[in-house]
Structure prediction request, 820 residues.
Amino acid sequence: MSQTVQYTEVERHAEPKGFVNRWIFSTDHKVIGIQYLILAVVAAFTGMALSMLMRIRLVWPDRSYAFLETLFPVGAPDGVMTPEFYLAILTMHGTIMVFMVLTTAPQGGFGNYFLPIQIGAPDMAFPRLNMLAFWLTLLSFLTLMAAFFVQGGAPGSGWTAYPPLSALREATTAGIGQDLWLVSISIFCIATMLSALNFIVTTLEMRTEGMALMRMPLTVWGWFTTAVIGLLAFGVLLAGGILLLMDRNLDTSFFIPGGLVVSDRLIDREGGSPLLWQHLFWFFGHPEVYIAILPGMGIISHVLATFSRKPVFGYRAMVYAMMAIASLGFVVWGHHMFVSGMSPYSAVAFSVLTMAIAVPSAIKTFNWIGTMWGGRLRLDSPMLYAIGFVSIFVAGGITGLFLGQPALDMYFHDTYFVVGHFHLIMGVAAVLSMFAGLTFWFPKMFGRFMNEPLNKLHFWLTMFGVYGVFGPMHFLGTLGHPRRYADITGVNYLAERGSAELHYFITIAAMILITAQFIFLANLLWSLFAGKKAPENNPWEATSLEWTIPSPPPYDNFAGRVPVVRRGAYDYSVPGSAKDFLMQHEPDEMTQEPATRDVR
Amino acid sequence: MSVELHPAPPKRPLGTGGRGDDILPPDSQGWGSGDSGGSGYHAEQRYKLAVWVGLAGVVMLFAAISSAMIVRSAGEDWLHVELPGVLWVSTGLLLVSSLVFEVAKRAAQRQGPRATRVWVTLTALLGIAFVVAQLAGWSELLSQGVVLKGQPSGAFFYLLTALHGLHVLGGICVLTYVAIRASLRRPWAHAKAVVEASALYWHGMGALWLYVLGLLLYLG
Prediction:
């Protein structure tokens, strides 16, 4: 092996000229990644605002707010939110968060920005397709938001859009807004499938010399596995969306059963099956959980190794665990339907398969702890977020074991226990991984650090906030408190057991949590322009290829000189090495100390 | 740490990467697959992989609709629809178009743009004829009173044929691009790679149609 760093010289791409080509209709994967991230931030704050409205409606149902009357004269006449409006904002909160934040930011944002660089490519395999996928995603978001402003307002059938409620134009909470919801989701499906195609081809075909599959950073494995899931799952949701749109607009009856009466009027359809939608939806819906979390798992593995100064414990096991999670994710959708009247034999099968996911999940958790164990931990903010992720992942994962058992799920189904569970495992864990990713890569993306004390303040407030909000929801669930109720006076029978106080506590914790996110946003914006400058290419002393290039990276990433890869992505604290990390393109001999010192 | 630059090997052109450029000559090596240490890479390979991956997504879409059709066909309101005879004509047209596309592919490899243009145009015309025949099938069914409302088997017929037809139209757009490209005096390597990959897609649409037809015959 040569003792020098080797590069492959390739032709350079000329940087596009003009603001529009460079920053708006850009085919540069880094710009597209940032566009996805901006979209996700806007969507996240919109979703958070809606969640705050929900919490306010729950604890102060009669209070009037003038701005609500201005914004939503139908949903909040006299500034007081109606129960239907509560359902609408509940639906939009879930939809925005699941699709526009959890699906876009970890994959479209970080994946787009860093996958090509980490595998040593100048761009994605199909840059124009990449741009198209982003603009379709934006169109989908705008279509979704338009639902607020059409006659009848936003739909109220939940992010799961169960028919017959969602299928009937006659239903008060499923007007034109529901059509816009369906069109938006259908566009989103197409965008995500195009993006997934690009990710898969890029990973398989664009790796630089020496970047074998088992040398790829776990981040890349996360994005790749997620792309495979997305490609296979979103096609099914698209099919469901088309069928539901036909039911609503072309008088078909795929999901609408016969004999249905709405507002004393017999609906002129027959033969459809509402359960059919549930099967189609959850065949997509459960893998969607992994679409949200798998990129995060990759980021967390990457960050934990870097800040523990140790190789990832059980790299191959981590890769196989991701594959196992992705595969099993396609055969457990029935656990969302235990109360649908399914055969108990089917329920047992789905339950066993669901429990089986605990195995690869536990492998990952143990390996994360194993990575940190005995390491020289650097508790910078990315590391804090990563440790927070592991904490939340365990908390949210354990509650999943309850819900995966049909007998227990009969009780917990549609209670706040489910709300607490999925927010922790799917929402908060994924968002923490985004914080870890953003604080970790910020110096690379913008050449500056984020403010560290503010990040740490944000971290601790966030951890208090999320446990304060979603922890008590598990207690509410064990009390039998149903979810999706706009008015908790409807469950007065639970009041003597403390449900009202818990709701107040949750709302206060939510306010703290949201305030903390504004601190992060302010820090982000301030750091973009005034943050401490990152001193060199590799401030974290990390190993993967993005740290070999300047910050921010040039237009075609490697400026025509792509490093040849010599090793895996996690060579930290290699015995005999002069420094405690070896970058992926560095040969052994360059960094080894003289043999005499090894002998001694 | 001293880092020496290895004596630079000759510059290797990048893959086209969907940028629409034509810097990739037919046998050049561009980006590596990593595992084999930067072994031969062709735009063709990337496009073909993209088509395979894309077809997997399309298969999931049709599989989902098929499963819905199977579930729905158990309903009491399910009535059998007699498929229009013109569907056999359209099937023939699509199968012949696949054969013609194979000829186009060989022309692209051996003869160059002019011959390719002829065969690709013929393939596209056969594709258009297929779509027209499908529409004639719709017309025939509509004249028999098969509509969307109250006739779930009819609804599935229209949906499946429409979705398949849209995918065929997408293929026709690509063929049109190739035909135009073949008419221009532009480097041929990129268009040739597109021909190879789109042939795969076109055959995939043929196979998909045979599946849809079988499903409609069996359940419809």
